[in-house]
Amino acid sequence: MILPIVAYGDPVLRKKGEAISKDYPKFDALLENMFETMYAAKGVGLAAPQIGLPIRMFLVDASPFADDEELSEIEQKELENFKKVFINAQIVEETGDEWAFNEGCLSIPDVREDVFRGPDIVIEYEDENFKKHKEKFSGLAARIIQHEYDHIEGILFTDKLSPLKKRLIKGKLANISKGKVNVDYRMRFPNAKKKR
């Protein structure tokens, strides 16, 4: 089932996610719905807060980047089958010289900005079977994970912009929260005027 994606301005996007366990209600259906929702919106990642659930869960599928000709063959190969579920994740290390990459977000449609992040991360997480992992990721894979991880920490990519950039997009963000944006996927707007 395709779920509506929560738009910028909804308080759930600012909540730090709660840890979950394997007895989380209807977990398998939630996982399936999240993947379906992400694919319907043509996203490469989706975090539970973006569908209104303040829990520590996100998923990624970076395969659309595997065709990016600006990436090396090695990076393309790495991203080709990069599909993962992250539950109760904690980034334990972020290293390397920060690099800029133009990011967008399904909760903030029509806004794209360069964001600086470290190129290498070490993350502890549980997979969809609640098996524990500790892994290192680099480059674009790390970038996608960092963006989704921020969601479960109540952080949006726009928080990482300079004060000037934030001022420049302030009007766009206000319009998004009111539902004044054209999107081709289901969304829930916090401040949209109710139809009578």
From TrEMBL:
Gene3D superfamilies the UniProt entry points to: Peptide deformylase
**Family assignment from sequence similarity:** Belongs to the polypeptide deformylase family.
Requisite cofactors: Fe(2+)
Superkingdom classification of source: Bacteria
Protein known as: Peptide deformylase
* Residues at which Fe cation binds: 105, 147, 151
- Asked if the Swiss-Prot or TrEMBL record annotates the protein with the keyword Metal-binding, the reply is yes
Single biological process term from Gene Ontology:
translation
Which keywords has UniProt assigned to this entry? Hydrolase, Iron, Metal-binding, Protein biosynthesis
Q: Which residues form the active site?
A: 148
Q: What does this protein do?
A: Removes the formyl group from the N-terminal Met of newly synthesized proteins. Requires at least a dipeptide for an efficient rate of reaction. N-terminal L-methionine is a prerequisite for activity but the enzyme has broad specificity at other positions.
Pfam families referenced in this protein's UniProt entry, alphabetically: Pep_deformylase
Q: Which organism is it from?
A: Ulvibacter antarcticus
Q: Does this UniProt record's set of keywords contain Signal? A: no
For this UniProt entry, the molecular function terms from Gene Ontology, in alphabetical order, are: metal ion binding; peptide deformylase activity
Q: What class of enzyme is it?
A: hydrolase
Catalytic activity annotation: N-terminal N-formyl-L-methionyl-[peptide] + H2O = N-terminal L-methionyl-[peptide] + formate
Q: How is the cofactor bound?
A: Binds 1 Fe(2+) ion.
Q: What is its EC number?
A: 3.5.1.88
